[in-house]
Amino acid sequence: MIFLELRRKYKTEQFFDTDMIKLENRLLQITQNGMGNGDEGLGLQLVVNYLKLIVEEKRIPKFIALYNAGVKLICEGSPAVEAFKTIEGKGTKIIACKTCLNHFNLIDKVEVGIEGSMIDIIELQGLASKVINL
């Protein structure tokens, strides 16, 4: 099965069980350490606000994939970690590109979500009814 590795990482056979919680069949992809271009502090504030609002508005995606500098958001010291923990607690699966984590020397600093491969991200893109890029 294609998602055996992701299921093992999340330690559940219910990995894709949509009855757990009513999550939207969406994949949110985050590729930078914040949201938008320009001031880095503002970008971090915007992404944290966005994550909190999707929970409040019950627009929670089934999956979040982080790659390139986006992986920094789930690592030690990021102001977004708590927002990601809240979203993960609602049932969203958070996958960070292992190659990117290694590139930024963050492999041991991940505080939420799991490491995944690019093939995992490609498979999630194919499964999602909608892909949102930040």
List the helices and strands and how they pair.
Blueprint: H1 4-10, E1 24-30, H2 40-56, E2 61-66, H3 81-89, E3 93-97, H4 98-103, E4 114-116, H5 118-127, E5 130-133
Parallel strand pairs: 1-2, 1-5, 2-3, 3-4
Notes on the structure:
With 134 residues, the protein is α/β, with parallel strands linked by helices. The chain has a single domain, classed as 3-Layer(aba) Sandwich (Hypothetical Protein Ychn, Chain: A), CATH 3.40.1260. Helix content is 37%, strand content 19%. It contains 5 helices and 5 strands; from the N terminus they run αβαβαβαβαβ. Strands 4-3-2-1-5 form a 5-stranded parallel sheet. Strand 2 (61-66), helix 3 (81-89) and strand 3 (93-97) form a beta-alpha-beta unit. Helix 2 packs parallel to helix 3. The model is unreliable at 16-21 (pLDDT under 50).
> Which series of helices and strands comes N to C?
HEHEHEHEHE
- Beta-strand percent range: 15-25%
Into which percent range does the helicity of residues fall? 25-40%
**Please, how many helices?**
5
Strand order of the largest sheet: 4-3-2-1-5
Q: Major sheet, described briefly?
A: 5 strands, parallel
Mean pLDDT: 88
> What is the CATH T-level topology?
Hypothetical Protein Ychn, Chain: A
Shape: globular
Look at the structure and name the CATH superfamily.
Answer: DsrEFH-like
Tag the structure with descriptive keywords.
single chain; about 130 residues; alpha/beta; Hypothetical Protein Ychn, Chain: A; five-stranded parallel beta sheet; globular
